[in-house]
Amino acid sequence: MSARRDIDGLVSLGGRVAGSDAERRAARHLEGRLGELGRKAVVEPISVFPAWHLTYALHAALAIVGSVLAIERPILGTAVAALALASFAGDITGAFHLVRRLSGRRASQNVVSVEDGHKEGTLVLVAHHDAARTGFVFGRRLPSPPLAPLFWSIVVVTACSALRIPGIEGTVLTALQFVPTAVLIVHVPLFVDIALSDPVPGANDNASGVATALRLAERCGGSLEHFDLWLVFTGAQEGSALGMREFLRAHRRELPRTSTVFLNLDELGSGDVRFSRREGPLFRSRSHPQLRKLCHELREDDPGAGAAALVLRSASDATAAQGHGYPAITITARPSPHHHLPSDTPENIESDALERSYAFCAELVERLDQEVGPDLRQ
User: Fold this and answer.
1) C-alpha distances in Å from residue 152, one per residue of 7, 75, 156, 336, 359
2) How far is CA 229 from CA 116, 128, 226, 274, in A?
3) SS3 of the chain: helix, strand, coil, percent, to 5
4) Of 34, 93, 126, 186, which has the most beta carbons under 10 Å away?
5) Residue 61 in domain
6) Whether 149 contacts 185, CB under 8 Å
């Protein structure tokens, strides 16, 4: 089956938002596709809080309440704002969820296919199979939701509220507190708008990544000298890589950090090949240096392919793997004029972009096996 047929197959299932029937159908569909390739696959159910848009609307609303309360009752207002700040920090890093628990729990699914060739290392190809929602902010061609202004506004509101506890007042402090409070007020309808918007078809984001992973599995499965090849199609990625975090919790004992590599494939159907230099929605971590080095070598060997490094300002599955101490990198393609828009349809997938991305990933997998694999024996 061609990459385009795989893309069409996923898109035809409907809006694959996390926790939906369409997402469950997508998981079963991918289980069947892996079976056609002769690979065993398991659909692993997970329980998550995927409504990230409502989560951040609630954080903004909570900080607004704290800011208003701090004017008359500074201790209580500071406590409320500090709660919003702590919850936001835990949520954005994936360390823990507080306010997010108010947004509703849903069932999602990861599709996992493993090889057990008893090789020295494990290479995990990751691609999320859920789809996003559209919204006003994405219509403005923003690369990601405005989480940084939200976070720093909560920080400033908390600090200003705390300054009121010892009795500090004045016009300057009031003005300083008003500006971030106004920013928070603007954020609430923006995130609510995303929650109320329709799902995108998800052809590029991320049926293109899933289709490329399937092609790589067909080409490289069982043939690598030093790596067993695993495939993980994650659910609920749009909710801050929730599916990936659940996968890592379930399989961390099977995947040693010293011999496991994660290659995240995301949005490969439009634009030129890009590989992550740093990733993260707020505080960005560097992609693994050895993986970046291999990508730079590939770019130098074929400068006509147009590959380049990129800073990704969102939480990807590679970000989650890095947070658990694993070598990881994201391969994507940019720019995509259809990011989180209804126009993300199979008709707008660029065949040349798909082929460039596939060729780059295939060569990266082979070089990883040839250059990094022998070191695993030591």
Assistant:
1) 39, 20, 6, 28, 41
2) 9, 17, 10, 22
3) 55, 15, 30
4) 126
5) yes
6) no
pLDDT tens readout for residues 156-199: 999 999 999 999 988 899 999 999 999 999 999 999 999 999 99
Question: Residue 172's domain spans which residues?
Answer: 53-102+146-196
Q: What is the structure's pLDDT at 370?
A: 93
Residue 6 pLDDT greater than 80, yes or no: yes
The last residue of one of the domains, among 155, 176, 196, is 196
Alpha carbon distance 266, 241 (integer Å): 12
Average pLDDT over every residue of 232-257: 94
Q: Is residue 138 part of a domain?
A: no
Q: Residue 82: which of 100, 101, 95, 69 has the closest Cα?
A: 69
Q: What gap in Å lies between CA 214 and CA 209, rounded to an integer?
A: 9
Residue 257 exposed, middle or buried by CB count within 10 Å (0-12, 13-18, 19+): exposed
What is the spatial distance between Cα 90 and Cα 175, in angstroms, rounded to a whole number? 29
Residue 201: pLDDT over 80:
yes
pLDDT band of residue 377 (cuts 50, 70, 90) is low
Provide CB contacts within 8 A for 170, sequence distance 6+: none
Segment 246-267 mean pLDDT: 95
Q: Looking at the chain, which runs of residues are DSSP E strands?
A: 42-48, 106-113, 121-128, 227-234, 260-265, 272-279, 285-286, 308-312, 328-334
The answer to the question of residue 141 being in a domain is: no
What region, left, alpha or beta, does residue 86 occupy, with left being phi > 0 and alpha being psi -120 to 50 degrees? alpha
Work out how many domains the chain is built from and give that number. Answer: 2
Task: Classify residue 95 as exposed, middle or buried by CB count within 10 Å of its CB (0-12, 13-18, 19+).
Answer: exposed
User: Residue 140: inside a domain, yes or no?
Assistant: no
Domain boundary among 178, 196, 214: 196
Contact between 318 and 264 under an 8 Å Cβ cutoff? The reply is: yes
The answer to whether 132 touches 202, Cβ cutoff 8 Å, is yes
CB contact at 8 A, 59 and 84: yes
**128 and 269 assigned to the same domain:** yes
